[in-house]
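Worked example (supplementary).
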Amino acid sequence: MPRMTLAELQSRTLGPSPTADRPKIKVGMSTCGLAAGADGVFDLLETEVKRRALDWHVSRTGCAGMCSMEPLVEVTLPGERAVMFGEVTAELASRLVAACADGTALPADHRVPGIAELARVAGEPVAAEGGPRQYRIVMRNCGVIDPEEIDEYLDRGGYQALAKVLASMSPEQVIEELKVSGLRGRGGAGFPAWLKWSLTRESPGEEHLIVCNGDEGDPGAYMDRSVLEGDPHAVLEGMILGGYVIGAKQGFFYIRAEYPLAIQRIEKAIRQAKASGLLGANILGSDFSFNVEVRLGAGAFVCGEETALIASLEGQRGTPRPRPPYPSVKGLWGQPTMINNVESLANLSQIITRGGKWFSTIGLGNSTGTKVFAVTGKVKHAGLVEIPMGMTLRQVVEGICGGTSSGGPIKAVQTGGPSGGLIPGRELDTPITYEHLQRLGSYMGSGGMIVMDETDDLVELSRFYLGFCVDESCGKCAPCRIGGTQMLRLLDRIASGKGREEDLATIRRLAHAMQKASLCGLGQGAPSPVLSALRYFEPEFRDRLTMGGD
Amino acid sequence: MLTMTDKIQATINGLPVEVRAGTTILDAARQVSVHIPTLCKHPDLDATAACGMCIVRVAGSSKMLRACCTPVEQEMEITTENPEIIQVRRTVIEMILSKHPNECLTCGRNQNCELQTLAADFGLREICLDSVVPDLSIDDTTKAVVLDPRKCITCGRCIQVCQQIQDVWALSFLQRGFDTRIAPAGDIHLADSPCVRCGQCSAHCPTGAIVEYDNTQEVWDNLLDPDTYCVAQLAPAVRVAIGEAFGFPIGTNLTGKTYAALRRMGFDAVFDTNFGADLTIMEEAHEFVERFTNAKSVLPLITTCCPSWVDFMEKFHDDMIPHFSSCKSPQAMVGALAKTYYAEKMGLDPAKVFVVSIMPCTAKKFEIIRSKSMRSSGFQDVDVSLTTRELARMIKQSGINFPAVKEEQPDHLLGAYTGAGTIFGTTGGVMEAALRTSYYLLTGANPPRIDFQATRGLNGVKEGSTVIDGHEVRFAVAHGLGNVETVLNRVRAARDAGEPPAYHFIEVMACPGGCVGGGGQPYGVTDGLRAKRAAGLYQDDQAGLWRCAHENPYVQKLYDDFLGEPLGEKSEQLLHTSYRSRPTYRR
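After joint prediction of all chains, the assembly is encoded as:
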């Protein structure tokens, strides 16, 4: 694609896609799909279509969210509504092609709800009856477009936010729009995005830098991976906007090396954007020049912490540094650096094109917009959901995800990953906001949500999460390095039935010291799962104390 | 935006405090005599925020903040002590102790350990946690410093000193989490690493994880042997630091008491390395004048008294070998002369002479065996090198009431010294001493002003020039190996550009402050302490009868009776050495 000018981009007509007149088959080919065998299904579909010499459009797409039903295949016949098939096998794929080719009815089996039935999509009319529960802003293109085709992103209004900003908005106006939107950092802590952008912009420095934190690492959480894989240009557009606002010439995607597909897709997106004049020197013919590069994380969870991430980017041992100075003042190579989470950046283009006010009407209180969760564990429909903030945990777990896989009651839901906590079944009517979750002893986190039923052992679960933090502790500060190990030993003792009454008090004392004296969020948050388990399920721990006793 | 000159008002435990913008809570607290404990923050180093001891409360925050790295903000209400804070600190100490061997009684830092002191202050009577001391082996391969990673609390001071201050990069953290430990990168032995044995790691370690290699037993064994003639020599910087182990004010010059103590311990003769320093200046100043007055010679001349610097140069800056003075260090010169000149004069069998040098330095333990030229007498010239810390222990073991000991004189043949020799112990001292004698050699008179202020003080790089006999002599003084490159790069730039040399004479000392801040000196070194020790040496210089090396009558006697002349055949054989390239990481 040749380099575009601003005018060309602005005048670009949006869909309908040119393929609307021929059957379109999309295969979910993000990591979740591929793990379930989507590449085999795709090859088969492509071969069949070729063999029959059909003028059909067979394409790859990202994760539509229903990961437990992968491989997902969506078939759209001209003039008809899309039909989604789940757990597609080779046999079903052959039948699909045959039905389309023969003009017979599509198979009735393996049908699963399509995106339109699951979610309202930002910028699109509410199609389905009954009111879908999800609201897709971040994931609006996931499972819809081919993430490796920039045209498909552009057809959905992609890079229009960049065009708008370059044509008519000053950096201050973008910050103001962000302020109106109320967007808070989606990495976990919920720091107001506009403030971070503004602070970085105002910090003096030779050079301002922007980093996208793609070092997602909470167990069971893969929202960022899916967004990077399913809609890389949306994240890239957010980066470019960020670069414009803070006055950066250079940005970095820091993505963990365990996400090869995300890396491959973001690298491709960067190449495409450069070729199209959306990235590089004089973007869209403006004075604004901006480049991005991809850097790989080497697998340390702590490198998701922003100062450890900076150390890692600099080629140092990935350990946190004391703050202040905050990265916004003194970050990468000592320069003012803005670090944003993948999901935060993916929201940007929509906030700019639809307005901060529009965004602020979604959500509840100070928690505006949507949040993507990776719902896993003992849940019927595991996968990604994007919900407006303020929706209750019950609506997510029972309403959207169908409750527990066993059909039994929900014992607890874990949010916030290894720094989060357990929320007992009786609190499921709590709305999902930063504040509500914190009040329950958990926190929003990056979006992991693990559902537990009555068969789950919460002592074991505590050990699992703490064990994760002990494994991932960088070892820099004493409270985390030693406290975690010692607490884990006590939990091991309790789990093995040799625990003593005073062990519970010692655990609480160690936990308090870790929370207060650890240097970074990893150590400060590591005791949370244990403490919340003790808070709501202490009897389970006590029951073990006397077991096998002596 | 606040600038450094803006004043900030806050309260600490209710006490009003006014500080400059950027001042940390830890420093502000000191200003109002509030002590906040820390195990990782050292005044020489940036805060790493590793230990978690210095946590405080700030009104309005639910967190506890680290005092070492949190700047005071306007109107901040800081609480440094309350039952909750104390409880957290106690728990953190308890955690650290659970991973620390319970070996205080046999530890090199017993009664002088920051962790031990803190544990005592907090009155821990029981560790409720299991002992989780890792099974790691001791690395004593350098025979200069001993690394015991079990005792490490992972504060990171040694690594910061080794990497940032000294630019050596021998030490690093290996592994992560609970298994994090200090070790040379690549998990090799310290002796195979770039380590230059400067011992600054041991001087900054809060515990016994890095200590000097202890040679005291070998010395006791020889003192016990009636057939061995034991001689001691005392380095310049030791005399103003040894007192710290006995409660003297910092910087007190205890030369005479130390001579006396050494004799009480059984040494047959007591020399002074300052004599060797005077001799070094005689040789080095002649070397300098020869190069300075010969248009074709290589300049600048670079001093070589510091063994860590020599080691560092051979490993990392071997292009500077032609610039190096061939002079041995003062201790090596005294060693060589003790087994030749002195033995001859006294009718001793040099095979029976046992030379012990008391040095502020751990690297001297390596220097005495660094090359064949360290056996110029036909025997190992210096048999054992002890640090100031080891000497203090030996004095205590001897039951000597050090403060009460009457001052004595050295054995003058190798013991008399001038002010020029004594200031070798501080950064800039060698340069100053060399300039005094060079001036004399070039003009036939002492300089009108004996003091060269430009060489003094604790700036990492000091530059200056002086005019001798109508010629400008440009000099530079660097201390702390991290500062060396600045100076050497100027030399290289001038050389590569074909310009006149950036300097004519360069002094380098590996340790910040020079030998007064040496890696073998009593613990607790800070710039304030370095300055006080240095002041002690400058007073010794001022008070002396002679202030220039060439005025030392015993040095003159040595040349007359034995050596002949500076740079003569015998001098070259006994007092000079050579260097070779020894890059650590070969391609």
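Two points are worth noting when inspecting this output. The domain at 217-575 of chain B is CATH 3.40.50.1780 (Rossmann fold). The two ends of chain B are 50 Å apart (CA to CA).
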